[in-house]
Each structure stands twice: as C-alpha cells, then as structure tokens.
Design a protein that fits this description.
heterodimer, A: 332 residues, 18 helices, 78% helix, B: 650 residues, four-stranded mixed beta sheet, 21 helices
Chain lengths: 332, 650
C-alpha cells in the first residue's frame, strides 16, 4: 500500500513538471500578450500608443525575452514558492489568491454540503421507489437542473430577487455594510446574499448526483445478493444501506478528484454573473488579459489540486470498496 | 504610426468649441461660475466637518495653512454643495479608468479649460512660450501641498520631466505631442521645459492628462529615495524590498495601475486608502487645492467606494439604485432599461451630448491583398455605393431610439471648423444609385443566390472584421443591419468577430477586407498613417518616411507600400496640423482640406454619430456633470468634474 502511494507521488511530480510547461505554453498560444491587451485597452480608451511607448512597455514586462527564458525564470521562482507578480493587479500572485481563498472555499464547501444533503437521500428514494410520482417529479426537476445553464439561472434568480424581494443583488454585501466592521447586521446581510449562489451552484451538482445514484443503485438492487438477503429475512434498511448504497456511492467517490479544483475555481461563470469575489473570475480575467504569471500559477495550482484529489479519491475507494483493495493486493 | 500623433487629437480637439455642450451648461451655471480664478477669489476658506474636527484635535494644521493663498476656484454645475457622506460607484476592472476613480481625469491640471473652450490657470498660474514653440517657462501656483502636507513646488514638476520622463529605465507616458529635450528648475516656483520639435498647442495638452498628476508632476520628496540619481543605495534598498533592480522598486512606488503604493502622496481630490481585487476606497485629501466659488474646500464628499463588478451587475446596480453615479460604462443602447426603473431606483438619467463622429465606422482596406477586392475598394464609386446602400435613419431608429444623428463619418457639429455638407456627403439612403454604380463597375453578373460576381466571373465576398461583441450589445444588431443593406444591393458579406488583441494585429496587415470601429478621433482617424486602419501598408511606408525625416528610423528599404502622391499629401496635412497653432487661419485651412478629402473619398463610411452619453445619477447626488469640456473626444472627460459632486441628504 505504502509502495503504491509513493509511486503515485513520484508520478505526480513528473506530471506536474510537464504540466507547468504545457500550461505556460498554452497561455502563450493566443496571439499577442499582456502588452497587446493593455495597448488595446488604452486604444479603446482613446489614447494613442506610439512605438516608443510600446518598446518601453515591452522592456517593463520583460516580454521581449524568449519564451523559454521567461518560463525558466517563472518555474525557478515557483519552486521557491514565489509565484511572481501579476501584471494586471501589480500585486504578488500569492496575495491575490489568498485574498479570495477563504470566501471561495466557504461558498464551495457550503454548496457541496447542500448538494450531498439534498442529492443522496433523494437519489436513494428515487431508486427505491422507481416510477413513483415522487420519482417522476425528481427526475423532471433533475433534468431541468442539468439542462439549464447555471449562469442563466443566476441571472433569472438575480432579477427575480431584485424585483420581488427588493434585496440588493450581486456581490456579497449591500452598500451599507461594505465598509462596516463585522457585526450581526453584516452577517445577516451576508446571509441574504448567499442563497442565490448556493442554489445556483448547487442545482447542477444535485441533479447530476441524483441521476448517478439512482442509476447505479437501481442496478445494484436488481442483483441476486439483494434478493438472497431479502429471502433470508434481513430488514429492508439493513439490506439497503449495508451493501447496495455503499456500492452505488463508488462513482460519486471517484469524482471527488475533480472536486478539489472545483472548490477553488469551479462555477467561474456564476461567480462572474453574481460578482462574487472568488477565485474563478480572477482566473478568467487573468486568462483574458494574458496576465501570464497569474494565469500560469493558477493553472498549476488547479492541476496540482486535481492530481491530489484523484489520489485522495483512489485511496478512499480502496478503503471503502474491499474488492479494489483485494485486487491491488493480489497484483502486488 | 508616426510619433506625436496624440498631439493631433489634442490640437484638433482644442478647436472643438461645442455650442451644444456650452448651451447645456450655460442656463444652469450659478453666478461667477465662468469667471476666472482671480476675479471670483474668496478670501476665507471653509472645510469639511471631519477635517475641522481633526484640526481641533491638533491632527491637522488649520485650513488656511493647508491651502495656497489663492487656490483654484472650481465653477459648479448647479449649486454650492454640502459636506459629507460616502459615494458608491461600480468599477468594471482594476484599471484606473473608472467612474469617479478616473485617475487621469480627476487630477487638477496645469491649466483648466472651461466649458466654452477658454482657459484658466490651474497648477500653473503663468507661462511664457518661445517664438519657435519649442520651449516653455512655467510658474507654479505658490503655496500648494501634496496630500501628506509636503509643499508642492517646481522641483516636483522637474522631477517628473527630467528625472522620470528623460531617465533611461523609467517608463512614463508622453502625452505632449513631441519628445522632451530637457527640463530645468529656475526658482522655487518656476521651471522650464524644452522639446525637440515645436509644440504650438501645448497649453491644450497641459489642460488634459499631460498636465495632471503622474505625467506632469510627481512627489519628488517621497520618490527620491528609490531613484538611483538621488540615493546611492537605491539598488540595495530595492533588494531589501524584494525587487531585482532599482527600476523595479521605483516603478512599484510611482506606478499607478492598478493598485498603487498607497503611501504615495497625490493631488487628487480623494486619496486611495485601500485597494484590492474587490474594491477601492478613497478618502478626501485634506490638502486639495481647489475651492468652490463660495470658498469651500473641495471635494464635498468624504469617501468614495468603488466595487469591481461584471457588466451585467454594473447595469443591475444602476437600476436597483445602488450605484450613486455611473457614466463611463453606461451604454445608450440600455437607455430604456435605465429609464424604466428611474422612479423605483430614485435616480435620473441625464443625456450628455455625444462627440463621436460615428458610433460605428467602416474602414474598407485600400491595401487588401486580394487584387480584385483592392481594385474595387480603391474605386471611389464602390465606396459611394456602399455608403448610400446604408439606411442610416433606420439604424438611428432601431438602435438609438432616434437620439443619434444619421451622418457620414466626419467631425461633429460642435467642431469649430464644420460644414454641414461633410455630414451629408453620400449619407442619403439610395439603393438604386448603389445598384447603378455597382453595375457601372462591371459587377453585373450574379450567382444563383443573386449576389454579384466579380468582373471576371469569380465569386465575390467581403468580410467585415470586428472585435468580439459582448452578449446583449447592440453592436451585433447594427452589424447585421449593415450586412443586410449591402446584401440587398448584391454584395455578399460575412461578419467575423475577433478577440481584441488579435483584431488590432489583423488591422495592421493587408489580410482584412473591412474593419469596424468607432470614429471618435476626428481628423486623426482620416490619416492614412497613425492609428487609422484603412491603409495599413501605406501607413508603414509613411511612418518610416516621417521617422527618417525626423532623424530617427532605420536603414534599408522602406516597409509597406508607397502610397499615391495625393494620399501622401493628404497625410502630410494632418502631420502639419499638429505643428500649427489652432487659432491661425492656416490651421483652419488645413482642417478644411482634410475634412473635404474625407467627404469626397470616404476613407471611412459612417453610420450614426453624436449619440448621447447617459449619465445615471441618484437623485440625492448634486452637481451632476451634464456636459463635456469641448477638449475631450472620449467620455472619460466627465470625471474631471467629480470633485464638485455632493450628497443632498447630508
């Protein structure tokens, strides 16, 4: 087992190295660079940018140097924990990410909890009562949840909340509380702003998990060991939760790998529409502006998290599903 | 691009005396508001209660010691305001070009230009220009202070010009129209500047961003310790602060975009006190050197909060009444949306007369690589056919609620040199004439779908290249209309959107047929060179020729293609206009010839222009700006009045 983990970690290190190169190159791929974005902004604002100014700017951002040189400098610093400075914000990348991390994780974790609390019981209910009226209701609702683009749902909910409840929408605080220190009023204000993001971010996830759980559980329930268990007179609850549900959770656990990066930068579109100060919009803005150190570092961070998540979900599978454990041991 | 093209815009813009804008301001101006600084000089100054309190506690010197004996006097739009309160605005990105947080615009300038186009003194009270227009002696208003209380004198100006603009490794933006040669301090309050080329219209430039904080002056006392000429240990200090070189460290202290060194003193009405990726907060500057006509130190408002939001939220914050004032990113297409919630949101939508010659202008590429298309585009009849095929009245009704002016791409009516014939030139809707002209060029054969074939029988299709369009923007509808009009006369059109950076790269080549952008820069956009895109190859050639004439430029063959003689003559007129004082007859003559050439040749095909800019302000906000100073051709110009905004409920 230890062997397995060590081997995985070594592979991860190699993969990260490759990824760092790929992500840096991908950011360089689109035509132009941060500079051309900036010059275009200046032109749009009505300024004239002459050649002399462009040369000065190139010098300032070190963009006249070869790509490989830029990459080596960035990666060298990255190894020492220095992610570089963002062109766009003129700040340390680390500071930018940390500034938004707490809120991002709060929202993502809260919506995740919401998703599991809603989806798992509903999924189990749907599977145990297939083709019942309630199952049809959940199925229809689930398909709508899956089919509606999240950002559209966000826009609709935002508009309805504003027109019907008169609440301030977008952002996390209304203007009266923006500059205030933390107080009960401010917490209530924050709570008023949270439902829309949570509902919107949660809908698709909930719908998806209901569908997956219902499908895999239905498969399991039809298997012979369940019939045997029932024939032996075991109580329905024990039959359900001791074996089929545990197995049906497998596909959900194996997706936990994607959850880690999603917690940090998922739902970018929703955050943009709702003006939530999370990491997603920061990443998008960085990519649009070709702010390469910020974008590159974030892509690296996310890929690192995805790999870590995959490792964790594999380990969880091993511990939950004895079949995988035995297979591994047999092979080793 | 040839150098100094910025000066053309500025030079041309001075001549822009705006009767519309002036008339809007005239009726509402309080007495004395158009008077010069000296005639309306108040003798006692009042200050904000929050500052009076600090003075009483001994935290600040009294107001008379913080202000110059003769401060600048700001005419107010409506009335004398009351002190206090927090103004909420919404920003679209971290850059310093935002509502109220528009750092290039809200700074006091060397000179101030009034709504009628006349000039007043500003940071500079007096100046003498040499006869050859290459040097200037300036006298600084005595007694002004930086926001940290340090005296502001000629040294701060010379530091910006000599030790920053002219210093290798320090990046500064030159908005002055000619390269600097030198700057010297003469006495405590006077200094000189010299340029390598004549700058006859420099006063206009210095009434704009060139004469504001950052470009025109810098806090020498604060920045010196990072500058290698003033501190031998600057390199060591830079290392200590975690930078590679002194240039990097110095830059991080003087650079403004987007989050600046918060400790750096400024002369803005508000001083940035916090700035992150979510919001910026600005507090009043206790040393701001501007008063209203009653002697109250400006600004009226204590605090400005700017939150960074997405485009949809920006509009939602307007209609929900949370945005106190918005003007830089409002769009006229959203006029009815803003208007709908005027009552529930408790705000008013003010329309400020717009100055764009054409909201959307089409530039056929005279240098396009395809020889068949090139011949067509260079044929004047073809361009006229394209122009008269457009139904401008319909565009105005459908997109701009009839509030714009259907017109050819040319200078706006408020321009001092203006002829109505220029706006009328080939701007009528006449598809029959268009068909006639196209037939006359031999484009008579059509394909199965009814589209015209080239004279040699090959298929013919033109691509209109544009920047990607934000969802919900009417630019898309407008382009669809253009496509429809042109296809109605048998020209097959394809619309293609590009990511902005790529769009700008593409439009510098011979690889596009027709490019789309706003015609906003008046005469400058009519040049083949500079940043116009209708003749990219001629631009390259001409730019290099100008560079060599000025003693710069490179060796070897000239790049691009040589333009016909008459194009070069036309282009040289624009180059010449910037070297000519705006008041002279010669200048008027040049502008006349340039605008006539456009009316005749249609380098640009215009659609609808002079579309108003919506300024949406809460009803509790007073002294809302309702006109542009006629200098500016971009909307940022409204921010310069922000220091007189006040909150009526305070």
């Amino acid at each position: 087992m230890l062997h397995y983990i060590v081997r995985r970690i070594i592979f991860m290190a190699v993969l990260l190295l490759v990824l760092s190169l790929v992500s840096f190159l991908i950011i360089q791929l689109p035509p132009g660079d941060y500079l051309s974005t900036m010059i275009q902004n200046m032109r749009n604002l009505g300024m004239t940018v002459d050649d002399e100014m462009i040369r000065a700017l190139e010098d300032r951002y070190g963009l006249d140097k070869p790509v490989m040189l830029q990459y080596l400098k960035w990666f060298g610093n990255l190894l020492q924990g220095d992610m570089g400075r963002s062109f766009q914000w003129n700040e340390e990348v680390t500071d930018l990410i940390l500034e938004r991390l707490a809120l991002t994780v709060t929202i993502s974790v809260a919506s995740l909890i919401l998703v599991y609390v809603l989806a798992v019981p509903i999924g189990i209910y749907s599977a145990t009562h297939p083709y019942s009226p309630a199952d049809y209701v959940f199925t229809v609702a689930g398909f709508i949840g899956l089919a509606t683009p999240n950002f559209l749902l966000a826009l609709i909910l935002m508009y309805l909340t504003f027109t019907h409840l008169g609440w301030s929408v977008g952002g996390l605080f209304s203007r009266d509380y923006v500059l205030e220190p933390w107080s009960i009023g401010k917490v209530i204000d924050l709570l008023k702003h949270l439902p829309i993001p949570l509902i919107v971010i949660g809908t698709a996830g909930t719908a998806e998990i209901i569908r997956i759980l219902r499908g895999s559980l239905l498969d399991e329930l039809a298997k012979q060991y369940v019939i045997t268990a029932r024939a032996k007179g075991l109580r329905e609850g024990v039959i359900l939760f001791k074996y089929p549900v545990r197995l049906a959770l497998n596909p959900i656990i194996s997706t936990i790998g994607y959850l880690l990066p999603a917690i940090v930068a998922g739902e970018t579109l929703v955050s943009i529409v709702l003006s939530l100060p999370t990491i997603g919009p920061l990443l998008l803005r960085a990519l649009q502006a070709q702010d390469m150190y910020l974008a590159g570092s974030m892509v690296m961070l996310l890929s690192g998290l995805a790999m870590l998540g995959t490792l964790v979900s594999d380990l969880m599978l091993v511990s939950i599903d004895p079949r995988i454990r035995f297979e591994n041991e047999a092979r080793a | 691009m040839f150098k100094n093209c910025f000066a053309v815009a500025a030079a041309v813009a001075l001549a822009l005396v705006s009767p519309a804008a002036f008339a809007a301001g005239e009726g509402e101006e309080p007495e004395g508001s158009t008077g010069s600084a000296t005639s309306a000089m108040p003798t006692r100054f009042n200050e904000a209660p929050m500052l009076a309190e600090m003075v009483a506690n001994g935290e600040l010197p009294p107001v008379d010691e913080r202000m110059p004996a003769e401060p600048m006097v700001r005419p107010v739009f409506d009335e004398i305001g009351t002190y206090g309160g927090t103004l909420f605005v919404y920003h679209r990105d971290p850059s310093p070009w935002q509502d109220v947080g528009d750092m290039t615009e809200i700074s006091p300038r060397f000179f101030r230009q009034n709504l009628d186009g006349s000039f007043d003194s500003g940071l500079i009270v007096d100046h003498e220009q040499s006869d050859d227009y290459t040097s200037l002696v300036l006298h600084v208003r005595p007694g002004m202070r930086w926001s940290d209380g340090d005296p502001l004198d000629a040294e701060d100006f010379v530091f910006a010009f000599k030790d920053m603009h002219l210093k290798e490794g320090v990046e500064m933006w030159n908005f002055m129209g000619a390269p600097l040669q030198d700057s010297q301090q003469i006495s405590e309050y006077s200094f000189s500047i010299t340029w390598t080329e004549p700058v006859p219209n420099i006063v206009t430039d210095f009434a704009g961003p060139a004469g504001g904080a950052w470009v025109g002056l810098q806090p020498a006392h604060y920045l010196k310790k990072w500058h290698v000429d003033f501190n031998e240990d600057a390199e060591a200090l830079a290392k200590e602060e975690g930078f590679d070189t002194w240039e990097d460290a110095f830059r991080s202290h003087y650079w403004w975009n987007p989050s600046e060194d918060l400790a750096r003193p400024t002369i803005h009405p508000w001083v940035l006190t916090s700035s992150d990726t979510v919001r910026k907060v600005m507090e009043r500057n206790a040393y701001y050197m501007v008063v209203d006509p009653a002697g109250n130190q400006l600004p009226y408002i204590d605090t400005v909060v700017g939150e960074i939001v997405d485009a949809e939220t920006y509009d939602l914050k307007i209609i929900s009444g949370e945005s106190d004032i918005a003007y830089l990113f409002t769009t006229f297409e959203n006029f009815s949306l803003y208007k709908q919630s005027e009552e529930s949101g408790d705000y008013t939508v003010h329309l400020v007369p717009g100055l764009f010659g054409s909201e959307m202008g089409l530039q056929p590429n005279w240098n396009v690589a395809d020889p068949i298309k090139r011949e067509l585009i260079q044929n004047r009849d073809f361009r006229i056919a394209l122009s008269v095929a457009i139904n401008r009245d319909e565009i105005n009704e459908v997109i701009y609620f009839g509030q714009g002016t259907p017109r050819q791409a040319t200078v706006p009516e408020s321009f001092s040199v203006y002829d109505d014939a220029w706006a009328q030139a080939h701007a009528q809707y006449d598809p029959e004439l268009a068909n006639e002209l196209l037939d006359g060029m031999g484009l008579t054969e059509r394909d199965r779908d009814g589209f015209r074939l080239a004279a040699d029988g090959s298929p013919l299709q033109f691509t209109i290249h544009h920047q990607v369009i934000e969802i919900g923007s009417s630019r898309g509808e407008l382009l669809e209309l253009i496509k429809e009009y042109w296809e109605d006369v048998g020209i097959r059109i394809e619309l293609r959107g590009h990511e902005p950076a790529f769009f700008w790269e593409l439009t510098d080549t011979d690889q596009f047929d027709i490019a789309v952008r706003a015609f906003e820069k008046l005469i400058q956009h009519l040049a083949a060179s500079t940043e116009s895109n209708w003749a990219p190859l001629w631009d390259q050639w001409l730019s290099e020729v100008y560079a060599r004439e000025a003693g710069a430029g490179s060796e070897g063959d000239l790049p691009g293609e040589q333009p016909p003689e008459w194009i070069e003559e036309h282009d040289r007129r624009i180059y010449k206009a910037q070297q000519t004082p705006e008041q002279s007859d010669e200048y008027r003559e040049l502008i006349y010839q340039i605008a006539e050439a456009q009316a005749e040749n249609l380098f640009w095909i215009g659609t609808v222009g002079q579309v108003p800019v919506p300024v949406v302000a809460q009803n509790r906000v007073g002294n809302v700006m309702t006109s542009f100073v006629p200098r500016h051709v971009w909307t940022g110009g409204l921010s310069e009045f922000a220091d007189q905004l006040y909150l009526k409920d305070q």
